[in-house]
Design brief:
The structure is a single chain. It contains 18 helices and 15 strands. 28% of the residues are buried. The strands form 4 sheets. The chain has a 5-stranded mixed beta sheet, with helices on both faces. It has a 4-stranded antiparallel beta sheet with strand order 9-8-11-10. The protein has a 4-stranded antiparallel beta sheet with strand order 13-14-12-15, with helices on both faces. The chain is α+β, with helices and mostly antiparallel strands and 543 residues long. Helix 4 (124-157) packs parallel to helix 7, helix 10 packs antiparallel against helix 11 and helix 13 crosses helix 18.
């Protein structure tokens, strides 16, 4: 049904036009290697400044009146035509031009730019009318062919379950080399290229984007707003046309639909494995069981470490199962590019992701941050909603996933207590708040805080003296009065008065090393407890 040479009928080449009426008595005196150039229109040109008047692929007809026998002007005009990517130049010999200078012939040969001579007078009007009619007819034919191809491709989508079938389909239709280049650098050639040198040469030409060996067209395959792969066609036998590009675009769209369908089915299957994954994060599986499970997905899989990430969504119930599934697909597509494999679990209003690192451990955090930044910035049904993100500690041993999961839960708890003061999503970056959280579970932390800070708390409550704020800034500035006053936006005299009051309430030795460290720790603990009390009140009101 589909033949590669039929697609060429959508456009004319110079050599096709030379077979038309009025081209019986012609001579190609230069640029014979360029007779395969595409012709999209025909112009009659009798001026010498043509560079800004052309769009490319025009066949130029001329009597030579613009340059007559001025060789410099003639040479300049041919150079302009070459620079404008014109298809060729047809000159009527006799009236205004009798000979073609050798310099012009040499220039045209170097650029593979055809120069054709009419040795008899010809009617330019009839030539343009004939070719323009033919071009318009072929444009209509192109639209018809494109629609037929799209319908056949859509029908094929209903019966196939492998993207290779789509690659075969476009290859058979256009008779070109087809390449699918995935974002993870996996490459699929169709037909397969057995020689590794040929593959490297072709990929290098594609990467350079300026190859003289191949005519190349490329189109991204987008899934969920992200470039999942790139579909590329190339030929070393003919110039790829706009029609080829349109076919490529329709094929890339169909390919995206198929790949998205495959990913969706895969994601649904993974949802059915939630029970096993729950056992993994709870720490009940052995290393042998875990490795056997992972080898089912990828026999060659070798993890360099792992980490658990929680994404807690507000109003989780407002999202459909399709919304959640597509969000997980989106997260997967982003982090696979960053060198992670992942498994997802849903628990109440929280998505739990197990990220398995496939690259060096030294770069995991940087790559993870880049991926999470893209997830947070995406404009989508879920992407733009408020959510808490907590990343547990990174573990080298896949049997220690339980530890990463528990620390991710701890990170969520801390975030809910201290709000915006949690400047990082990572458990490893919370430092002092981790200690405070643990102490609060096992001790009466409130009582300990009051032991050190009660005079300050009582004074601020009675006089609104801002002593707690002053104390915190003074300590963070390492006792620098100038810096403290600057950050508090107060004059030195006011600061001196507050410091005197602090010495009276806390003792004149409150800046001594050990006492200072203890007071600073108690300030953080106090802020944690205040935030925790507010969070509890909000939860009670919501309940």
């Amino acid at each position: 049904m589909y033949k590669g040479d039929e697609t060429l009928k959508s456009y004319l080449m110079v050599k096709d036009i030379l077979e038309r009426k009025h081209f019986e008595n012609i001579e190609v005196i230069a640029g014979k290697e360029g007779l395969g150039r595409l012709v999209k229109w025909v112009h009659v040109v009798e001026v010498i400044n043509i560079r800004k008047l052309l769009n490319g692929s025009e066949l130029i007809l001329s009597t030579g009146v613009a340059w007559k026998d001025n060789h410099d002007i003639f040479l300049s005009l041919v150079q302009q035509l070459i620079d404008s990517d014109a298809a060729g130049l047809c000159i009527e010999i006799g009236t205004f031009t009798s000979t073609i200078p050798e310099l012009v012939i040499d220039l045209a040969n170097q650029a593979h730019f055809p120069i054709i001579l009419f040795h008899h007078e010809v009617p330019f009007v009839e030539i343009t009318q004939d070719i323009h009619t033919l071009l318009i007819h072929r444009q209509y034919q192109m639209i018809s062919d494109l629609e037929s191809y799209s319908q056949a491709l859509n029908k094929k989508l209903l019966t196939i379950d492998n993207y290779i079938e789509i690659l075969k389909f476009i290859h058979q239709y256009l008779q070109v080399q087809v390449i699918l280049l995935f974002s993870n650098e996996e490459v699929q050639f169709l037909p397969e290229i057995s020689s590794s040198n040929e593959r490297k040469l072709l990929l290098k030409s594609i990467e350079k984007k300026d190859s003289t060996l191949y005519s190349i067209e490329r189109n991204p395959v987008q899934l969920l707003g992200d470039n999942y792969a790139e579909l590329i066609i190339c030929s070393d036998e003919r110039v790829l046309t706009e029609f080829d590009h349109l076919i490529l675009d329709r094929t890339a769209t169909a390919l995206a639909q198929l790949l998205l369908r495959e990913l969706y089915v895969e994601e649904k299957r993974r949802m059915e494995e939630t029970e096993w994954l729950n056992g993994w994060i709870e720490g009940i599986h052995t290393e042998e069981e875990i490795r056997e499970y992972l080898s089912y997905f990828n026999p060659k899989f070798k993890t360099k470490g792992a980490v658990v990430c929680l994404i807690k969504l507000e109003s989780f119930e407002q999202y459909s199962s399709a919304d959640i599934t597509y969000f997980k697909l989106f997260v997967r597509s982003i982090f696979e590019q960053q060198g992670f494999s992942l498994f997802a679990i849903e628990k109440r209003n929280t998505l739990i992701f197990i990220f398995l690192n496939e690259r060096g451990s030294s770069t995991w955090k940087k790559r993870f941050k880049q991926g999470m930044e893209r997830v947070c910035n995406v404009k989508s049904q879920i992407g733009e909603q408020k959510k808490k993100i907590a990343i547990g500690k990174y573990v080298e041993d896949i049997t220690a996933i339980h530890s990463s999961y528990q620390t991710s839960l701890e990170t969520i708890r801390i975030q809910e207590r201290i709000g915006n003061k949690a400047e990082s999503h990572f458990y490893d970056d919370l430092h002092i708040y981790r200690i405070i959280s643990q102490l609060n579970r096992h001790l009466d932390l409130h009582e300990i805080v009051l032991e050190y800070l009660e005079p300050i708390i009582a004074y601020d409550k009675k006089y609104n003296g801002k002593l707690m704020e002053t104390l915190k800034i003074y300590l963070s500035c390492n006792g620098s009065k100038q810096e403290t006053a600057k950050r508090l936006y107060i004059v030195r005299q006011t600061l001196y008065h507050r410091i005197q009051k602090l010495e009276k309430l806390l003792g004149p030795d409150f800046m001594n090393h050990e006492k200072r460290l203890t007071i600073e720790f108690m300030i953080y603990s106090y802020e944690y407890l205040v935030a925790a009390r507010k969070a509890t009140e909000v939860e009670r009101e919501a309940y």
